[in-house]
Amino acid sequence: MIALKRWCSRQSTSLLLLVVCLAMMVFLSIQTQSFFSLKNVVNILEANSYRLLLACGMMCIISSGAIDLSVGSILSFSAICTAMALKGGLSVGLSIPLALALGGIMGAINGLLIHFTRINAFIITLATAFLYRGLSLIATQGIPITKLPQGFRSFGCGDLFGMESGVTMALLVIVLLTPLFYHMRWGTYVTSLGGNPEALKRSGVPIGRYRVSVFVLMGVLSALAGIIVTARLNSAEANAGLNMEMDAICAVIMGGTALHGGRGNLPGTVIAVFLMGLIRNGLTILSVSSYYQQFITGAMLLCAVVIAEFRERKSRIG
Amino acid sequence: MKQSILSINQVFKSFGRIQVLHGVSLEVQQGAITAIVGDNGSGKSTLIKILSGNLRPDRGEIQIGGRSYHGLTIPQAMDLGIRTVYQDLALDNFKNSVENIFLGSERMRGPFLDRRAMAEEARQLLEDIHVQIPDLTQPVNHLSGGQRQGVAIARALRRPGSVLLLDEPTAAMGIQESHSTLQMLSRLRERGMTQLIISHNLHQVFALADFIYVLRSGHIIAGAATADTTIDALQDLILRRESEVEEV
C-alpha cells in the first residue's frame, strides 16, 4: 500500500496528464462523432511522431540542467543536406546515416561549446540555432528541395504495422530510452548533471563526456525528426522545424521534468506530447481557428510552469 | 612513532596575484587523526582541494603510497585511496541516500544498475558508522544535517581507501549533530582509518585529533602532538599578529 502511494506520488504529473487526456477524449467524443475512431487516433500519433522524438531528446537535455534552442535548425539543416545528397545521387541507405551523423555532429558542437566555454546553454544554442538555420538558407538560397526518391519517402512515412513508420521509430526510441534513462549509468549521470554537476565531478565522473552525449542524442533525434518531416512533406526547406523546440520544451515541462534539471519524466513527456496533439486535433475537428491552439498551448504551459516551480520550491523547503 | 602515509612538501598555490599557499609541508600518520586549524582564508580548503585532485599546485609535491606527485586529478586521487568529504558535502539533492553513496561507483548487473545490491550495501555501510536514515529512498534534501553528513562519509568509505579528508565536518551543524559526527569520526579512528581534518573549531579538534598543524595566511606556523599543546597556545598562534609569528 505504501509502495503504491509512493509510486502514485512520484507519477502524479503523468497521472494528472492522463486524466486530462481522458477527459479531453470523452469531451471530444461527445462533441463530434468523427473523433473516436481508430483512424483518428492513428492520425494523432502520426502527426506527432516527430514531436515525440524531439520531446524525448529535450527531456534528457532539460534533466541535465541545460536547454537546446537549436533543435529546429538542426532538423532543417540535416534534412537539407540529406535531400541534397539524395538529389546528387547518393543512395537512401547512405543518406539516412549521413543525416543522423550530421545531427549528431551539430549536437556535439553544441555540447562541446557549452562544456568548454562554460557559457549558458541558452546563449550557446540560441547562437547555433541562427548559425545552423543560416547554413540551411545559404545552402538552398531559400528554395525548397522537392521530389525526393520514393525509397526515402517510404523510410520516413511509409506504412509499417498499419501506421506511418515515424510512429514506429518514435515508439522504438521510447522503448530504448526508458532503460537508458532510468536503469543505466547514463541516465543517473545525466540527471546528476542537472542536480549537482560538482558532486558528479568530485565522484570522478568525466562530466564533459556525459554533457556532450546528451546533446549528441538530441542532435541525432532532431535529424531523425527531420527525415520524418521531409519525407511527409516530400520537400526539404530551410524554414522546416521553425519553433519546434518550443513545442518540445513545452511538452517536457508539462510532463513533469524539473525546470532546473536533476529529474526527468519520460512517461509524462510522452503523455504531454499526446495531450498537445489531442488539443490540436480536437480544435481542428471542432473547426476552431488555429490561433486559439497557440493560445491554449501557451496557457497550458504557463499553468504547468507555475505548478512545477511551486512544487520544486516546496520540495526544496521540505 | 607511527608511519607517515601522506606527506606534502613545499606546496605553493596562487590564484592570479593572490598567493594562497606558501610552501606548505606536513605529514599525515597512518591510523591517526591529523588536524589543520586556521582562521578563514588561511588556505585550509585550498589544501584539501589540492589533495583531493580538485586543484593543481603551482609547485611542490605530494607523497603517497611511496610515490611523488606534482599534482593529482580527482580520479587519480581516488585510485590512490584518498577519500574526501567536502564542506558542502557534494550531494545531489534530487537523489536518495543510496544513489548518492554510489554516485560514480554504481554496482551493476550487466549494463543495468543493481539497485537491490546497492540498497543492501548502503544500509550496511550506514549501520557500520551508526547513521540512522529510516527511509533510504527519500531524496537527501529531506534529511537532517547529520544524516547528510553521514551519507557523505558513507560515500567516502564505500571504496577502500587509505586516507579520509574531511573539510569542516561539523560546519553548519547543530550541537547534537556535531556530537554524533565527532563520535562517528572517533569510531573510524578506532577502526584504523587515517583522517586529515580541517576545522576552525579548536575544541572539537582537541577532542579528536592526535596531531595538529596551524595554518596561517598560507604558512604552516606550528605543528604539535595534541598532548603537547593547549587550546590557548594554538588560539594565540592563530590570532597573533603576522610579524610576531615565527615559522615552526
From TrEMBL, chain A:
State the compartments where it is located: Cell membrane
Keywords for this protein: Cell membrane, Membrane, Transmembrane, Transmembrane helix
InterPro entries given for it?
ABC_transp_permease
Extract the Pfam families matched here: BPD_transp_2
- Give the main location: membrane
What superkingdom does the record give?
Answer: Bacteria
The membrane-topology field of this record reads:
Multi-pass membrane protein
Q: Where are the transmembrane segments?
A: 12-30, 50-77, 89-113, 119-139, 160-182, 210-231
Instruction: Output the PANTHER family linked to this UniProt entry.
Output: ABC TRANSPORTER PERMEASE PROTEIN YPHD-RELATED-RELATED (PTHR32196), INNER MEMBRANE ABC TRANSPORTER PERMEASE PROTEIN YJFF (PTHR32196:SF63)
Q: What is this protein called?
A: ABC transporter permease
Which source organism?
A: Pseudoflavonifractor gallinarum
From TrEMBL, chain B:
User: Which CDD domains does the annotation name?
Assistant: ABC_Carb_Monos_I (cd03216)
One Pfam family this chain carries?
A: ABC_tran
So which domain of life are we looking at?
Answer: Bacteria
Cite the Gene3D superfamilies for this sequence. P-loop containing nucleotide triphosphate hydrolases
InterPro entries from the entry?
AAA+_ATPase (IPR003593), ABC_carbohydrate_import_ATPase (IPR050107), ABC_transporter-like_ATP-bd (IPR003439), P-loop_NTPase (IPR027417)
Q: Name one GO molecular function term.
A: ATP binding
Where is the ABC transporter domain positioned along the sequence? 6-242
* UniProt keywords, alphabetically: ATP-binding, Nucleotide-binding
Its name, as the record gives it, is: Sugar ABC transporter ATP-binding protein
List the source organism.
Answer: Pseudoflavonifractor gallinarum
Give the classification, highest ranks.
Bacteria, Bacillati, Bacillota, Clostridia, Eubacteriales
